[in-house]
Design goal:
9% strand; binds D-arabinaric acid; alpha/beta; two-stranded antiparallel ribbon; 18 helices; binds zinc ion; 412 residues; TIM Barrel
Length: 412
Amino acid sequence: MAIARPMSERVERVLRQTPVHDIHTHLYDPAFGSLLLWGIDDLLVYHYLVSEGFRQFDIPYDRFWAASKTEQADWIWRALFLDHSPLSEACRGVLTVLHSLGLSPRQSDLGKLRKWFAEQKPADYVERVLKSANVASICMTNSPFDDEERPLWESGFARDPRFRAALRIDPLLVDWPRSAARLRDWGYDVTPERSQRTVSEVRRFLADWTRRIQSTYCMVSLPPGFTYPADTDTAWLIREAVLPHGREHGQPFALMLGVKRAVNPALKLAGDGVGRSNLDALQNLCAENPDNRFLVTVLSRESQHETVVLARKFRNLHPFGCWWFTNTPQLIEEITTLRLELLGTSFTPQHSDARVLDQLIYKWDHTRRILARCLTHKYTELAASGWEILESDIQRDVTELLGGGFDRFLRS
Ligand code: RAT
Ligand code: ZN
């Protein structure tokens, strides 16, 4: 008689072997050249680590930002890895990456590691990382307002089909007067005042970029104070331009809610904070627009339960990811269990938010381990209720959670 393998082993194996479709990153198609970051220095100057570094060293902000990337990386390595144990999730991530590349992480300086990364050929390295992380496809974050990125889209390039585009429009929605001026420069006949002509030109802008980048969805991050409906430029643009555009072009609208930008501007990208979101805005959006699909992730732990309950009420709402400050093992386990218990598998538990290619390795390694714990626990409970768990059930559920459900939602 065959000996039954423990549930944890069965689940872990399926999770390891199932490729993931990463639905939100800040990585770029390799054709973007130096915009695709990788290697030890970029891993160490990740903004999650910059804010942790400033808690340990007393380097003045200006001095830090004036330093070279190598010098910044050296300071962070010393402060967070040598002078203290690298206990934080972002620190542990660097170690997971190095370890899985076969490199010994415990180095008194970065010389050897730098040498190893310098010897890698970029194209081969992309393949190596995608294989090691078992990532099948990646959604980028593509902003027409980004001056480094825009010219590449305008001139065109041969796409790597694994790198899918997502149209990011924060400046359009949160800083309309300035964005109106930019749209004018790009040949769109808009004015800062609200008018029908401006609405149709904004829709033309969205349509042009959706086509140009072959966008899979349209995305924005919004502050805790976001309300809808409201007499604001943001709410007006969403109602008059973004939602009709989404219906016409089959683009879900992804909302990342609860970010307080530049709480400490001296930290630059590392200086953003979190606040509780008013989820009535999300409820109103879903209720008033049954023909639009919404993806949502919320930044504060306190907003998670309300979001899941909303998803039970609105099938045009798909929660995704444990974003940024919730991307810590304990919170991922809590949020994923909550979602499984209230939504079954009709959500996408995680996106990597990777900014540096190599991070895919740790983000997905850590996530897979946590998902394994959550699913093992649930399947064990089902088995105790007399429901036999088949291998094909595990495979179906994992495929759904690692991007299959998201793709279905995109096509629905
Ligand atoms: O997680 C992050 O890297 C943040 O800086 C943000 O970029 C966030 O993910 C976002 O997409 O706004
Ligand atoms: Zn992001």
